[in-house]
Design brief:
Elements lengths: L1 H28 L18 H20 L10 H4 L22 H12 L4
Helix pairs in contact: 2-4
């Protein structure tokens, strides 16, 4: 019984932490133009736009799909597109392939949609 009572509190805490991180990410990106967010400054660093989408994909894949009853993915292609190194989840794009991320408005929409999903 104690575990059942703790589950909603844990879900609320997790969602609150995720929203805080998203808010911090948006704050860091505020001065960037859409063009700035597409630049890959070095081979070791992904473009900002891709990073935002990948972290949303991670939350969707490992939290929402597992624990939010009836959760529907934001976009069916995102599961493949933003899987950069989790071999057990299936295929992933080649590192040097064509553009790997959707338009910025779609990326921003996924951020908003994920934070409004109940756990």
């Amino acid at each position: 019984m104690a575990q059942t009572a703790q589950a909603p509190a844990a879900a609320t805490s997790l969602l609150a932490r995720y929203k805080a991180v998203r808010q911090a990410s948006r704050h860091l990106c505020r001065p960037l133009s859409p063009e700035d967010m597409m630049v890959q400054s070095s081979p070791e660093a992904s473009p900002v736009k891709w990073h935002l989408a990948h972290t949303s994909w991670f939350f969707e894949t490992f939290v929402l799909r597992e624990f939010a009853a009836g959760y529907q993915p934001f976009h069916p292609d995102f599961h493949w597109l933003f899987n950069s190194y989790y071999n057990s989840l299936g295929d992933m794009p080649e590192k040097n392939s064509a553009p790997r991320s959707p338009a910025l408005p779609s990326t921003r929409s996924s951020l908003t949609g994920l934070t409004s999903t109940p756990l």
